[in-house]
Structures are given as structure tokens and as C-alpha cells.
Amino acid sequence: MKKVICALMFLSVLVSCKKEQTPQPEIVLSTPEGTSTTEFSGEVLQQEIITFEGNITTFERALRAYRGKPILIDIWASWCSDCIKGMPKVHKLQEEFDLVYMFLSFDRSEDSWREGVKRYKTIGENFLIPESSRKQLFKKALEIDWIPRYILVDHTGKIAHFRAVEADDPKLIEKIKELIK
Asked: Which of 29, 45, 57, 74 registers the highest number of CB atoms within 10 A of its CB?
């Protein structure tokens, strides 16, 4: 799919060089099965997630609830030893930076997720990614090859930093500082 998009873009550049056109607004494309590094795909946004209260919502609704504020998404699981080791770093970020902290869990059951939220004090907005979503879409579209995974979203809902596996990643911290100026 990416090759097709690149070929079409190359073709449009050739054609536009031959005749004068009025400038078109830039469109950020994301593949149907994936996410670009600046936007979540429609499929990811429509995926159902479970709130800590047990309600079902979509990832898009969860993000929209905090539009206008930067959001740090922490993708984790209570069974993940690296996630647990990283929680003190997340807590330090929470002390230092005024962001919305959204925790998306890959736990296998609601009970283990709820217990993990309490045990590891994931203070913020907590959601469970249902098993089917995790396997079919989130993991592939967000290129999740390791957890924990941190994604920073800006005030407009665009992805400001797509990939960090440590909460104290210098590039992630730099982007956070840029967003809260």
C-alpha cells in the first residue's frame, strides 16, 4: 500500500511540474492498517476500549475528552516486568509535568488489569484494550513490538512523539517540554 501511495505521489509531482496548478492543502495520509507518525488511523480511533468504571468507549472519544491538552499515553500491562520497572519514571514525569496521563493496558483480564492499576498506582485515565483489539489492530497499527510504549499527543490530537520505550527517553522529555511551553 505504501508503494502505491509513493508511486501516486511521484506521478503527481511529475504532472504538477508540467502545468501550473493552484496549491493544495497538505494531507497527511495513514495507511488503512496502520498509523502514520503524526496521526492515528481511523481504525485505531474506532477501536473499543474499556474504562475503569467498566464502560465501553472508543479510543477516539477518550482522546477527544482531552483535546486542547497534551496527553502521554502509556501502553503497558500488569504482567510486564519492564512496565512495572518503568512506573517510577512515569510517576516522576507526573510530578514534573502537567499532562494528561492515559494508561492503555494489554492485560488479559479485567480483574488483573484493575488489580494492576491499584497495585502500581497508575494515576490518570485508565483503559483496557480488549484482547481482540490488541491482537488485530493496536499492536500492528501502533507498531507495538515492546511494552512499555509511550506516545505523546499534542493539544490538537496529533502525535508529537510516536515511539519511546522508556519514560525518561530524552527525546520524549524534550517534546513534552516543547508542548507545555
From this structure: 74
Neighbours of 96 (CB within 10 A): 12
- Which three cell numbers, joined as nine digits, stand for 117? 492499576
Residues in the chain: 181
**How many Å apart are CA 73 and CA 154, to the nearest integer?**
11
> Which tens digit of pLDDT belongs to each residue from 133-173?
555 677 888 888 889 999 999 999 999 999 999 999 999 99
Using an 8 Å Cβ cutoff, are 84 and 103 in contact? no
Domains of the chain with bracketed CATH: 31-179 (3.40.30.10)
Is 74 exposed, middle or buried, given 0-12, 13-18 or 19+ CB atoms closer than 10 A? buried
What backbone torsions phi and psi does residue 115 show, to the nearest 5 degrees? -65, -40
Q: How many angstroms separate the CA atoms of 108 and 130, rounded?
A: 8
CB 149 within 8 A of CB 142: yes
